[in-house]
Amino acid sequence: MKELLNIKNLYVQYNTDEAVVHAVNGVDLIVHRGEAMGLVGETGAGKTTTALGILNILPEQVGEITEGDIVYDGKNVLNMSKKELQAMRGKQVSMIFQDPMTSLNPIITVGNQIDEMLLLHFKELTKEQRAQKVDDILKLVGIPAERKHEYPFQFSGGMKQRIGIAIALVCQPDLLIADEPTTALDVTIQAQILQLMKQLKRELGTALIMITHDLGIVAELCDNVSVMYAGEIVETGTVEDIYQRIENHPYTTGLFNCIPKLDSNEKRLTPIAGYMVDPTDLPKGCKFHDRCPYVTDRCGRENPKAYQNGTHKIKCFRYESWGEGDSI
Amino acid sequence: MSKPVIKTKNLTKYFKTPRGLLHAVESVNLTIEEGKTIGVVGESGCGKTTLGRVITRLEEATSGEVYLEGKEILGLKGSAKRNIYHDIQMIFQDPYSSLNPRLSLGDIIADPIETMGERMSKKDLHELVLSLMDTVGLPPRYYNQYPHELDGGRRQRVGLARALALDPKFIVCDEPVSALDVSIQAQILNLLMDLQEEKKLAYMFITHNLFVVKHISHNIMVMYMGQVVELAEKNELFAHPSHPYTKALLAAIPQPDLSSRGKNRELLAGEVSSPIEPKPGCRFSPRCPYASEKCRAGEIPLKEIAPNHYCVCTLFSN
């Protein structure tokens, strides 16, 4: 498969009045055409910041990319002009957001919100052709085309998220970034949306970056997984690599162990000790070391490199015998 | 069978809206025993939170009865009503908005004792608050801090310490871990279960997370649009889900393993309809693949389909 997105050694920080928040600390991520990559981690892991970096829409003046490159389809996003960026956003890379209630414009009909995308990116189309495309995409996401004249408040949460997906997909982008798209939805509605995303991926061949904290969603939808902690990818591999649960980063193991199981009656859960590190004051060495059950002296001094076994890469000294791989 | 702490009888809550009566909770009968947890699951708008608020009298019931250790409490007034909070407490979903931002943690936890508890000296109160903080795993240095200085997990511990301050018998936990990350969620669940064992607390645990409800509950009640559709011991419910809605709900959870990969699951079509002036009969019937005329004819009786397993569905009513 051809490489579509290549993030190299990305560092992002937020400069606030009180402190500098180190949100992303040296991320390497490759996404191929048609691939579905799951980006997993807890609040503050840097998942969303990485995604915003790809579209170069970090909050102005506060968010700053201090190092690294984001190469999309051979071009560096960070060197693009405003015009080039506008042409890319929504057309080649688009994004759906967590909260469908606030990411739609309340005073524009949903049909016009979809049409807006076409108006921007397909100036050559006639009004009739655009209307046809709007109808088609609505049908594809499971909304009757005649509802395009309605406003967001007339739709339920699940329907609004379908509209968000329609807006993101109407220009047939090569890469779709979905930032926790089902977190605000009920499970039965979530199941419908996941089904829809699976079907669209199959039919349109869109590459997907699925940002989520839910390991179940990744297992269902993604080909590959990257686990983030404190702004670093600590483990990456195919879903099989990760979910076989034979060799994992201690943080990934911790995440799995936190989820109560449906098929056993264990009395106590095994939470990860301690709390998330403070991104304004990151520890030296491995960022996970003070919560890790396998910690050694070395972990506090030295940040482990990525060790690689086939498609599976882990940033932890326990896998040093695998040999050094490409950085993650 | 141990002692029932809370019992409800035909507990019903309707809200008046401009478009008619909203049937939030429809004739709920449940019993919660000492040291046991009943999990209440369902999707948003199913009435699970309202049920919790009606039992704790944060919301007045439209009809029905609630018994606290055999004594009816919905008819109580004045100080007698207030006194139920010695035994009934609640923790809330959002640890950000359920703590007074202008009080220090020590004051937040001391508040219920000062308003309702025994009179005691400042020193004793201070000691008691510190011991409560210790119970929920908050170090003493937090005593003078304010809620905004804490993360979600620690705030939820404050909410729990406040609920424990009057040594209650029953706590309604309304989605207490939904706003937390999984690693913190596991800490709070462990804490809740340890406290239950130690103090024989009864919990009503309201959640939409089926992993969590399976873990913490003894019995589970499934609600859909204000109606109870199924009630069973937890292992029985997960082994033999019987109501079509329960089945759909269980089938919809994405499992954190590769077992269901590539398989197409049975999906529930449609969405929740309006609970305002609902049609008679089963409210799930518009989405139910097995629905028939019978489902819309009228009230469907609760039927015991296996020992301690109740289901409200016409598939079992004959």
From TrEMBL, chain A:
Cellular component terms (Gene Ontology): plasma membrane
Membrane topology: Peripheral membrane protein
Principal location: membrane
SUPFAM superfamilies documented for this protein: P-loop containing nucleoside triphosphate hydrolases (SSF52540)
GO biological process: peptide transport
Keywords carried by this UniProt record: ATP-binding, Cell membrane, Membrane, Nucleotide-binding, Transport
The ABC transporter domain, residue ranges: 5-255
Localisation: Cell membrane
Keyword Amino-acid biosynthesis: no
CDD domains (UniProt xref): ABC_NikE_OppD_transporters
Entries under InterPro entries matching the protein: AAA+_ATPase (IPR003593), ABC_Ni/Peptide_Import (IPR050388), ABC_transporter-like_ATP-bd (IPR003439), ABC_transporter-like_CS (IPR017871), Oligopep_ABC_C (IPR013563), P-loop_NTPase (IPR027417)
GO molecular function: ATP binding; ATP hydrolysis activity
Family membership noted in the UniProt record: Belongs to the ABC transporter superfamily.
Protein name as annotated: ABC transporter ATP-binding protein
Native organism taxonomy: Bacteria, Bacillati, Bacillota, Clostridia, Lachnospirales
UniProtKB/TrEMBL annotation, chain B:
SUPFAM superfamilies linked to this entry: P-loop containing nucleoside triphosphate hydrolases (SSF52540)
Molecular functions per Gene Ontology: ATP binding; ATP hydrolysis activity
Biological-process GO terms, alphabetical: peptide transport; transmembrane transport
Entry keyword Transport: yes
UniProt KW keywords: ATP-binding, Nucleotide-binding, Transport
SMART domains associated with the record: AAA
Keyword Protein biosynthesis: no
Domain ABC transporter: 6-250
Entry-linked CDD domains: ABC_NikE_OppD_transporters (cd03257)
InterPro entries xrefs: AAA+_ATPase, ABC_transp_ATP-bind, ABC_transporter-like_ATP-bd, Oligopep_ABC_C, P-loop_NTPase
PANTHER family for the chain: ABC TRANSPORTER, ATP-BINDING PROTEIN, TRANSPORT ATP-BINDING PROTEIN
Family, as annotated: Belongs to the ABC transporter superfamily.
UniProt name for this protein: ATP-binding cassette domain-containing protein
